[in-house]
Amino acid sequence: MAIDPEELNKRRRERELRRKKRQRAMYIRLAIAAIVLVGCGVGIFFLIKNSEPASAPVMATTPAPTVEETEAPTEARASWEKAPTKIHIAAAGDLNITDKVIWSGQTSGDFNYTNAFMDVAPILSEADLSILNFEGNVCGAPYGTETLSAPQQLLEALRNAGVDVLQMANSCSITNGLRGLTATLSNIRAAGLEPVGAFSSAEEFRKSKGYTICQVGDVKVALVAFTKGVGSLGLPVGSEDCVNLLYEDYYTTYKTINKKAIRTILRAAESEKPDLTIALLHWGSEYNEEISDSQKNIAELMISEGVDAIIGSHPHLVHQIDFDEEAGTLVAYSLGDFFGDGERGGTNYSIILDMEITKDYDSGTTKITDYTFTPIYTLAENQCDGFRRVVRIDNAMSAYELNFVDRITQSCYENMQFARDRILERVNAGKKAAEEANKKK
């Protein structure tokens, strides 16, 4: 299945327009500065000229070669002269469907979740492609924790905030049965989003071959998604392919990695010759900071099969990010909870990851060349202005320090200080471990 390129192009044009406005303003400032510098230079030249003796010798110079004298550009040089393309892909963690999340958008008997994502919308919408894990269904009322079903307006708010892709291979894929899954996938597409990793039928899986291709500018991206299980449930006979699974024993012990199925999907995606392959993995253990040997084995398998980036979810906590700059591969074991109740320690803060992808025409390579992340926090209704919403930690802390009218509470400010430190510690855990290992060598 492929994301509608026209829709992505429309978003990209809007983002490009905003960027051009910023660039135009920058160019105007540079032009003014250049005029000032030129004026100063001319003034200095005449001062020096007037101060020189009249008999000063004129130095002879070798004339620069004309255009005709230079070598005609070859095909190789023309390729080399094409500047590399850079795109940015943003990824967020889990959006959990709970009573509090549903209530956060209730307004006079209807639902509106615009306010919940307003502060992080600039990050999600500025990226060329934005992804998050949707832990729930959209299959009608009743809504909330018991059914894990959300209203359509939540999807529309995500779409308006800049989200493009929803990972749907997770614990909640078949919470409401295959009918619930089918309705959810249909509603996601109706909202202008693309689900990845789950399928309404075996036939849909066969047609898609288990992956999604997305053309982002000049970069062809393959997206795959897998889950360790589906909430301890088993997929009905004949529908085993409706959710991409990491384990053969996905409803019991999670010990036998489903290598054959994983390889089949990844190799099918590779046959499309994508520039980049991203795997969205629902794995690990809930509320646990440990990374299992099984996860490491899965990561090694996927990278050996051509995966460039692994974006993890399910633990609800921020885990380490391992970035191999030389190879251009990245493994983010867990981004934490993007939006939810935030009642358990560590689940009220997480990150939005930004990956810089560079396509180099001269070398013929496309890889991850850098990454950054934005620490975010889920505000409870009593921590700010009465709304449950996702905010950027640094912005919220600055607003508090500057004494804004709708600033967060003092206790929330202190919690954010702790959260920011913890995020840095967890994200950089892999880097520190690698540095210590190198010292011992």
Helix content: 25-40%
What's the order of the H and E elements? Answer: HHEHEEHHEHEHEHEEHEHEEEEEEEHHH
Poorly predicted segments: 51-70
For the termini, the CA-CA separation is: 47 Å
**Looking at the structure, what is the overall shape?**
globular
Biggest beta sheet summary: 8 strands, mixed
Radius of gyration in whole Å, from Cα?
Answer: 26 Å
- The class by helix and strand makeup works out as alpha/beta
Number of helices: 13
Classify the beta-strand content into a percent band: 15-25%
Entry keywords:
441 residues, alpha/beta, 8-stranded mixed sheet, 13 helices, 16 strands
In brief, what are we looking at here?
The protein is built from 13 helices and 16 strands.
What do these coordinates show?
With 441 residues, the protein is an alpha/beta fold. The protein is 37% helix and 22% strand. It contains 13 helices and 16 strands. It has helices at 5-51, 75-80, 99-103, 114-117, 121-126, 152-161, 177-190, 202-208, 259-270, 293-304, 393-401, 410-427, 429-440; strands at 85-96, 106-107, 110-111, 129-135, 165-167, 194-196, 212-216, 219-227, 276-282, 309-313, 321-324, 329-332, 337-339, 349-360, 365-379, 389-392. Strands 1, 4, 5, 6, 13, 14, 15 and 16 form an 8-stranded mixed β-sheet that branches. The protein has a 6-stranded mixed β-sheet with strand order 7-8-9-10-12-11. The protein has a two-stranded antiparallel sheet with strand order 2-3. Strand 11 (321-324) and strand 12 (329-332) form a beta hairpin. Helix 11 (393-401) packs antiparallel against helix 12. The longest helix has 47 residues, at 5-51. It starts with a helix and ends with a helix. Mean pLDDT is 88; it is low at 51-70.
